[in-house]
Every structure is written in structure tokens, then in C-alpha cells.
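Protein modeling request. Please complete all fields; requests missing the sequence field cannot be processed.
Requester role: graduate student
Desired output: 3D structure, C-alpha cell encoding
Chains: 1
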Amino acid sequence: MVKIKSESGFTLIELLVVIAIIGILSGIVITALGGARTKAKDAKIKSELIGFRTAAQLYYLENGNKYSDLICGSINSALVNKTTRPYYDSINKANGVAPIACRANINAYAISSVMVSDPTKHFCVDNGGYAGEGTKVAQVVAGTIKCE
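Delivered output (148 residues):
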């Protein structure tokens, strides 16, 4: 009696099926992560705007209890205060260089940025302690600077 040796292994079809399943699963995961990236960018914008508020308060305390238009300045200007400049750069990176609205004088400031997940919404902070998401944008209302 002759014994036939059989070699075990995967056939080409089995390997192709496994590769196809891995491809489908990776496509599902990548699609699901798209929303997470957008939410992460929104969270970064909120975090940086709250950090801006802290930096503006430090500026206020270090400069005789006064704000300055330098905390806003032009976003591309060299005049933007060194205390707040890093926040501008980080917000611009997160929101894709969408406009940042910033208003300031010696008594008050307000700054807002467009949300990546919904361009009709803004996150705004001001010197009065307001920090919120909605349609409020940093602006001058009846001579007062605030999120409105």
C-alpha cells in the first residue's frame, strides 16, 4: 500500500477571500473615522479659544488692567501679541484658515471661530466669561464688545 502525502495550506481563492474581507473592514473603519477627525478639529478650536481667553487675561494683568487691540491685530500681522499669537496659529490650522473674528479695545475683547463640522456655527469667548457654541460671533454691539 502506497501512502500519499498531502500538503496542507491555503488555496489562492481562500487567500483572496481573506484579503477582500480585510479590505472591506478597513474601508468601514476609515469611513467611521472621518467624523471623529471633524469632531477632534472642533474640540481643538474650542480648547484653543479657551486658552486664548487665559492668555488675554494674563495680558490684561501684565499691562495695567487693560486689553489692547494688539491681542487681536491682523492674523497675519507681526503686531499680534506674542501671548495670543500661538492660539491664532493653532486655530487656523484646525479650522482650515476659516476667518477668525476678533474684536478688542482697552476694556474688552471677544474672539470666535467657525466650527469645522458646521460652518454656520461658531465658538466664541469673551472677557465677560462667555464661552459657547452657536451662531454668536465676536462683534461690537451698541459700543460693547461681546459674543452676540
